[in-house]
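Duplicate of #3305? Posting structure anyway:
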């Protein structure tokens, strides 16, 4: 049975998304947030398949994740077991997303990075810094900041651990975990809690 997902996606995308879910007989479940993924696809017994999507995504992230996972289903049905995010999946994802690339569904400021991402889609939209930021409507969760916004050498909390922001390395930012003195690479759009009273030189 498919969960009613209409409230999770842009209104103008409902009919098209609903038709895809019905056409492919998708069992869709909306689940609590998972830290490592926005959604997933599983092939079940008797030819059935299931898609799960996190309930904390905004409507634009949710729609993109839904189509991403439906593309896995279509790819499996058409080609069997192939590389999860290989050329077959990319082609299906691009084809399925095309009707949704419209200003009545995605705001104009999202369409350009979304179109750019779809030229060579990757396993996670979070790997595309511009698209990830646009999909978050350029706003971090209440009480948090994006790492790229913080001053150099400022400290912040991420998953109950304290870090110091360092230099940018290509698309990621070096951050030192203070307790262990280990260096980690953070996505520029990682959402963290800024400790304003602690900036070191």
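Output from current build:
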């Amino acid at each position: 049975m498919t969960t009613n997902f209409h409230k999770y996606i842009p209104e103008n995308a409902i009919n098209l998304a609903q038709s895809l879910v019905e056409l492919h007989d998708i069992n869709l479940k909306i689940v609590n947030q998972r830290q490592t993924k926005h959604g997933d696809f599983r092939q079940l017994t008797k030819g059935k398949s299931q898609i799960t999507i996190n309930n904390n995504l905004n409507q634009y992230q949710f729609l993109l994740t839904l189509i991403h996972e439906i593309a896995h289903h279509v790819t499996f049905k058409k080609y069997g077991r192939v590389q999860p995010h290989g050329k077959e999946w990319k082609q299906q994802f691009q084809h399925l997303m095309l009707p949704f690339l419209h200003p009545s569904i995605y705001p104009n400021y999202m369409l350009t990075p979304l179109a750019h991402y779809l030229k060579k889609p990757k396993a996670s939209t979070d790997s595309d810094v511009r698209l990830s930021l646009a999909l978050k409507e350029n706003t971090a969760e209440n009480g948090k900041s994006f790492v790229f916004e913080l001053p150099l050498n400022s400290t912040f909390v991420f998953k109950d651990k304290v870090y110091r922001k360092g230099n940018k390395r290509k698309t990621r930012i070096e951050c030192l975990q203070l307790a262990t003195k280990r260096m980690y690479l953070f996505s520029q759009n990682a959402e963290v809690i800024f400790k304003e009273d602690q900036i070191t030189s």
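Confirmed duplicate; merging threads. The helical segments are 14-23, 59-79, 87-97, 108-119, 129-135. Strands lie at 26-31, 39-43, 49-54, 145-146, 154-158, 161-169, 172-177, 182-187, 191-199.
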